[in-house]
Amino acid sequence: LRVWAQFNFGLLLAIVGLLSLVKGSKKILLFSAGVLLTNILGIIFLRAMPFSDVNSVIYSVYYLPAYAVIVAWMAIGVVAVLSRVKFAAPAVLAVSVIALLLINYPQNNLRSFIFLDQYSSTLLESLEPNAVLLLSLEGLNVDNVNFSLLYQTVVAKKRPDVTVVSLPNIFKTDDRQILSEIYRGTDLPQERRRLMEYALHKEAFKNRPLYATFPVENLSLEEGLWSRSNGLVYRIYKTGDKPQPLAHVALAPSKSDKKILERNMFGQDFLANLAYTQAAWYAASGDKGTSQEYLIEAINWDNEPNGLDYSTYLLFREKVLLSKDGRSGVSGARINE
Fold it and tell me: For residues 210 and 206, what is the distance between their CA atoms, to the nearest angstrom?
C-alpha cells in the first residue's frame, strides 16, 4: 500500500522494466532483486520494537533502498516502452512526467503550510523572560516540536533569553553526557522524572521560570511540584507558590493547515498534543465542558490513545479539579485568538 501511494500508476512501468530484465540482463535483474529482498527481509529481522502503526512509520524510511530499486525498474520500463513506440516517444515521456507531477505535487507542496512556524514562535513568546523549557514528547510529535523550536531559536534568533533543554544532538548544551543518559531510554515517565530533577538541581536554572511540554503531577518528585497549562506548554511550580493566573494561548491551525496535519501520523500526534494542552488549560479554569471537547479531540487524533499523554492528562485533571485552584479557576486573558 505504501509503494502504491508513492508511485501510483508508475508501478506499471516498473513491471514493464522487470519483464524487460527477465528477457534481457539477468545480472542486473538478480542484483536489483537481491537488493530489494535483502532490504525488506533485513529490516524485518533487525526490527527491535514490537509492531504498531507508530513504529511502522518510524521504520518506513529504512525501505528507501527498496524504493530506489523500483525507481530503477520504472526507468528501464520507460526505455522499453519508448523503444517500441519511437514515433510517439516524446509524447509518452511527457505524459508520464506530467502525470506523476500532477499526482505527487499537491501532496508535497507545503509552501502555504505555516502552522508549525506559528506554533513554535507563539510558544516561545508565551514564556516568561529568562525561562527554561524542557522537552519530552510522546509518539511522532518529537521532531515537529524540536526542529521548529530549533529553527526559531537558531535561525530566526527569537527569545535568546530562553534555554531549551532537549536531545543534546539537537540543541547546544554543556551537559551533553548527562542529557544523553536521560534521553537514551524508552521509559518516558522515567525520562521526564530525571529531566525534571536535572533542571531543579542545575545551578544555572535556579530562580528561573520553568516550563515543560508535559505536566508533572504523575512524576512523584520529592520537591512536590505542580503544573498549569497556558494552552501550549505547562508552567511548573513548587509547593507553596502562589502564581498569577496564566494567560490562555488560544492557537489553532487554519483549515488548510489542519488538512495537511491530518493526513499523516506526525501531524495527528501534533494535533493530539495541542488538544491535550488546551484541555488542561480549560480544566484548570473550571470550564469542564470545553475541556471535555478538547479531550475528545485529543483522543481522536492520538495514535496511542491509551498511552502516557492520555493517562497523564487524566491524572492532571483529577488533581486540578480536587485542588483549590481547580475549584476557584485559574483563568486569565486570552491571546492569539
Answer: 9
For the entire predicted model, the pTM comes to 0.78
Exposure string over 132-167, b if 16+ CB within 10 A, otherwise e: bbbbbbbbbbbebbbebbbebbeeeeebeebbbbbe
- Residues in contact with 117: Cβ distance below 8 Å, sequence separation at least 6, in sequence order: 148, 151, 152
DSSP bridge partners of 335:
249
**pLDDT tens track of the chain, all 337 residues?**
566 666 767 788 888 888 888 888 888 888 888 888 887 777 666 665 565 666 666 667 777 888 888 888 888 888 887 777 766 667 767 777 788 788 778 878 888 899 999 999 999 999 999 999 999 999 888 889 999 999 999 999 999 999 999 988 899 888 999 999 999 877 899 999 999 999 999 999 999 999 999 999 888 776 788 999 999 999 999 888 888 788 999 999 999 999 999 988 889 999 999 999 999 999 999 899 999 999 999 999 998 878 899 999 999 998 887 774 444 334 444 434 3
Measured distance CA(59)–CA(172) in Å, rounded: 27
Residues 229, 274: Cα–Cα separation, whole Å = 11
Q: Where are the beta strands (DSSP E) in the chain?
A: 132-134, 163-165, 210-212, 225-229, 234-238, 248-249, 334-335
Whether 121 and 158 have beta carbons less than 8 Å apart is answered as yes
Q: What share of the chain is helix, strand, coil (3-state, %, to 5)?
A: 65, 5, 30
What cell numbers appear for 250 in the block? Answer: 488560544
Phi first, then psi: give them for residue 248, nearest 5 degrees.
-85, 125
Separation between Cα atoms, residue 165 and residue 186, nearest integer Å = 18
Q: Where are the alpha helices (DSSP H) in 109-227?
A: 115-125, 142-150, 176-184, 188-201
In whole angstroms, give the CA distance from residue 149 to residue 145.
6
Which strand ranges, in their side-by-side order, compose the sheet holding 163-165? 163-165, 132-134, 210-212, 234-238, 225-229
- CA angle 203–208–209, rounded 5-degree value: 140
Where is 139: in which H helix or E strand?
none
